C-alpha cells in the first residue's frame, strides 16, 4: 500500500507543534501531527511539556496552593474566620490532572475541527525522497508517511545534575515535582530559576520547609536588578530559604531522603538533608529518537537543531521551532514560531519579534517583563530614563490587600521610546500585555502616560510608572 501523503508533517504536539499544525491546516494544507506523549492509561495526551508537566499543571497547583495560603494566612485580614482548615492533597492534585485533561481534550477537538490528522507514536526521519521526506511513526502500530514539509517541534527535557539521576521518587524533575504524594517536611531545590521558584512556592505554601541552592551569586540574574531584589525580599519574608553562590557536591539518594553536600558562598562545607529534592537547573533540547542523522539534520553542540531567524534548518523544507531550537524556552515563543513557519510555507511573511516576547514567573508576587533590563541598557551604553511606581500607592492593590512590588519603565532618553517594562507585584502576568502592545507599536512612555486607565485598577500603576519617567506621578 502506498504511504499516506501530507503537505506538512509536524513532529511533536506541544504548543509549538499543535499550533503550527492548526495554522497550516487553516492555510489549506493537508496536515499530520505526530506526538508520542502518553497519559496515565497509555493513550494520547496532546499538548506536550506545557500541557502535561509544565505551564498548565504548575499554574493549577500555584492557584490551589495560593488559595490555601490565603485561607490560612490572609482571610483573617478581611474579617473572614476560617475554622478547621485542612488540606486534601489528593484532591488538589486530582484537580490539577483534570485541568490538564481538559487541555488535552481541547487540542484533540481543535485537530478534528481543523482536519489535522493525528498520529500517536514516535516520529523519526527515514530518508529524503520523492516529493519530500519519509517519516516513520512508531506507535501501537508502525507505518511510514510522507510529507513535503516537515516541522520539528520535539521540545525539551529536564537537565539532570551529574551523579543525581531523576528517579521521580526522591530526586524529582518538573514531572515528579508536580505529583509528590504527600507534602514533604523538608524540600530541597537546586536552581533558583523559574521552575525552582514556582515549584518551591507551591510546596512552601502547602507546608514544606524549602531550601533553594543556586550556583549564581545573584538572584534571578536575567531579571532587572531592582525587580529581582524586591522579589527576593518578598520570597525570603515568605520563608523560602535561598542560598546563592553555592557549589553543589555529592548528592546521596537514600531510603529516607536525599543528602546534598554543598559549599556556601564563603566556601564553607555544608550538608542539606531533605525528604525530596527538585532539580531545576535548566532544560535540554530533545531530539531523542528523531533519527536526525538519517537525513543529515544539523544540531549544535547543545543538541539544539540549528535554524536561521526564519526557523529554517540545514535541510530544504525542514523547519524547527520551540524548545528544540535557540531562544527562550517559552510556550508562547514556540507558538509564535509555529504560526510564522506555517505562514512561510504558504508563501506569506510570518514574523516573530524576539524583542517583545514577555516573560512571566507565576510566583506571588508575580514577576513579568518585556524588553531590556536596566543592567542591559547600561552595558550597551544606551542613554535611558527610568520611572517606577509602587503598588503601595495604588488604590486597587490596597483593596486587594496585596501592595508588594512596583512597575518600572525604561525609555530612551532622547526619543522616549519604551525600551523595557518590568513588574513585580499582583497580576503582573496580565499587566505586562499592555507593555507588550506598546512596545510592538513602538510607543513612547508618554503615550502610555496619556492613555485613560480604569480606576481603581492595577493598570493605573502602569500609567503612573510611565508618568514617573518624566517625574510627574500624580499619586506618589
Ligand atoms: P514541548 O511542549 O516539549 O512538546 C514537544 C512534544 O513533542 C512532546 O509532546 C513530546 O512528547 C513530543 N515528541 C518529542 N519527540 C518526539 C518524536 N520523535 N515523535 C513524536 N513526538 C515527539 N512556558 C511558558 O511560556 N509559560 C509557563 O508558565 C511555563 N511553565 C512551565 C513550567 C514547567 C514546570 C516547565 C517544565 C516548563 C514551563 N514552560 C512554560 C516552558 C514550556 O513548557 C515550553 O517552552 C514549551 O512546552 C515548549 O513547547 P514545544 O512545543 O517546543 O515543546
Ligand atoms: P532556569 O534556566 O530558569 O534556571 C536554572 C537555574 O539553575 C539558574 O538560576 C542556574 O544558575 C541554576 N543552576 C544551573 N546549574 C546549577 C547547579 N549545578 N547548581 C545550582 N544551581 C544551578 O531553568 P528551570 O527553572 O529549570 O526552567 C527551565 C525553563 O523552563 C526556563 O528557563 C523557562 O524557559 C521554562 N519555564 C518557564 C516558566 C514560565 O514561563 N513561567 C515556568 C517554568 C519553566
Structure write-up:
The chain is an alpha/beta fold and 476 residues long. It folds into three domains: 4-158 and 284-352, FAD/NAD(P)-binding domain, CATH 3.50.50; 171-280, FAD/NAD(P)-binding domain, CATH 3.50.50; 356-468, 2-Layer Sandwich (Enolase-like, domain 1), CATH 3.30.390.30. The protein contains 13 helices and 21 strands. It has helices spanning 15-26, 48-53, 55-74, 89-114, 174-177, 194-205, 225-238, 331-345, 374-380, 395-400, 428-440, 445-449, 459-468; strands at residues 4-11, 31-35, 117-129, 132-139, 142-152, 156-158, 171-172, 186-190, 209-213, 241-243, 247-253, 258-263, 269-274, 276-279, 283-285, 318-320, 359-361, 366-371, 384-390, 406-412, 418-425. Strands 1-2-3-4-5 form a five-stranded mixed β-barrel. It has a five-stranded parallel beta sheet with strand order 7-14-8-9-10. It has a five-stranded antiparallel beta sheet with strand order 17-18-21-20-19, sandwiched between helices. Helix 3 (55-74) runs antiparallel to helix 4 (89-114). The structure holds flavin-adenine dinucleotide (FAD) and 1,4-dihydronicotinamide adenine dinucleotide. Flavin-adenine dinucleotide is lined by residues 11-17, 34-37, 48-50, 54-55, 58, 122-124, 153-156, 174, 195, 286, 289-290, 322-324, 329-332, 334, 362.
Query: Which ligands accompany this protein?
Result: flavin-adenine dinucleotide, 1,4-dihydronicotinamide adenine dinucleotide
What is the total number of structural domains? 3
Mean pLDDT: 97
CATH class of the largest domain: Alpha Beta
According to CATH, the homologous superfamily of the largest domain is FAD/NAD(P)-binding domain
- At CATH level 3, the topology of the largest domain is FAD/NAD(P)-binding domain
| First and last CA, distance | 74 Å
State the helicity in percent bands.
25-40%
Spans of at least 5 consecutive residues with low confidence = none
Amino acid at each position: 500500500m502506498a504511504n499516506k501523503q501530507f503537505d506538512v508533517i509536524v513532529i511533536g504536539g506541544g504548543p509549538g507543534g499543535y499550533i503550527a499544525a492548526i495554522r497550516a491546516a487553516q492555510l489549506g494544507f493537508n496536515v499530520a501531527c505526530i506526538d508520542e506523549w502518553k497519559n496515565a492509561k497509555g493513550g494520547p495526551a496532546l499538548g506536550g511539556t506545557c500541557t502535561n508537566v509544565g505551564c498548565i499543571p504548575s499554574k493549577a497547583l500555584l492557584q490551589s496552593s495560593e488559595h490555601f495560603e490565603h485561607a490560612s494566612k490572609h482571610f483573617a485580614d478581611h474579617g473572614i474566620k476560617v475554622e478547621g482548615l485542612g488540606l486534601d492533597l489528593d484532591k488538589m492534585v486530582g484537580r490539577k490532572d483534570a485541568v490538564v485533561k481538559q487541555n488535552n481534550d481541547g487540542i484533540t477537538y481543535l485537530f478534528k475541527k481543523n482536519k489535522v490528522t493525528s498520529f500517536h507514536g514516535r516520529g523519526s526521519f527515514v530518508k529524503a525522497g520523492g516529493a519530500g521526506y519519509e517519516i516513520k511513526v512508531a506507535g501501537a502500530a508502525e507505518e511510514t508517511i510522507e510529507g513535503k514539509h516537515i516541522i520539528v517541534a520535539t521540545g525539551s527535557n529536564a537537565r539532570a545534575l551529574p551523579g543525581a539521576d531523576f528517579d521521580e521518587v526522591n530526586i524529582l524533575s518538573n514531572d515528579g515535582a508536580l505529583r509528590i504524594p504527600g507534602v514533604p517536611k523538608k524540600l530541597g531545590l537546586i536552581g533558583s530559576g523559574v521552575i525552582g521558584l514556582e515549584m518551591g512556592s507551591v510546596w512552601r505554601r502547602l507546608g514544606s520547609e524549602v531550601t533553594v541552592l543556586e550556583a549564581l551569586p545573584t538572584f534571578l540574574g536575567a531579571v532587572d536588578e531592582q525587580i529581582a531584589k524586591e522579589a527576593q525580599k518578598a520570597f525570603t519574608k515568605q520563608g523560602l530559604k535561598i542560598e546563592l553562590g553555592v557549589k553543589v557536591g555529592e548528592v546521596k539518594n537514600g531510603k529516607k531522603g536525599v543528602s546534598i553536600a554543598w559549599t556556601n558562598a564563603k566556601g564553607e562545607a555544608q550538608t542539606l538533608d531533605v525528604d525530596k529534592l527538585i532539580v531545576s537547573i535548566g532544560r535540554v533540547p530533545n531530539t531523542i529518537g528523531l533519527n536526525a542523522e538519517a537525513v543529515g539534520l544539523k544540531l549544535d553542540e547543545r543538541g539544539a537543531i540549528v535554524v536561521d531567524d526564519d526557523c529554517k534548518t540545514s535541510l530544504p523544507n525542514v523547519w524547527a521551532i520551540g524548545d528544540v531550537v535557540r531562544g527562550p524556552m517559552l510556550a508562547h515563543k514556540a507558538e509564535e514560531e509555529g504560526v510564522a513557519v506555517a505562514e512561510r510555507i504558504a508563501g506569506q511573511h510570518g514574523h516573530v519579534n524576539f524583542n517583545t516576547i514577555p516573560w512571566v514567573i507565576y510566583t506571588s508576587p508575580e514577576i513579568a517583563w518585556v524588553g531590556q533590563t536596566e543592567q542591559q541598557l547600561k552595558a550597551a551604553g544606551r542613554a535611558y530614563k527610568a520611572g517606577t511606581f509602587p503598588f503601595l500607592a495604588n488604590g486597587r492593590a490596597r483593596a486587594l490587600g496585596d501592595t508588594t512590588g512596583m512597575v518600572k519603565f525604561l525609555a530612551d532618553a532622547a526619543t522616549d521610546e519604551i525600551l523595557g517594562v518590568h513588574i513585580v507585584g499582583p497580576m503582573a502576568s496580565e499587566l505586562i500585555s499592555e507593555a507588550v502592545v506598546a512596545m510592538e507599536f513602538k510607543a513612547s512612555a508618554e503615550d502610555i502616560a496619556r492613555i485613560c486607565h480604569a480606576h481603581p485598577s492595577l493598570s493605573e500603576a502602569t500609567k503612573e510608572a510611565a508618568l514617573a519617567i518624566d517625574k510627574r506621578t500624580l499619586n506618589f
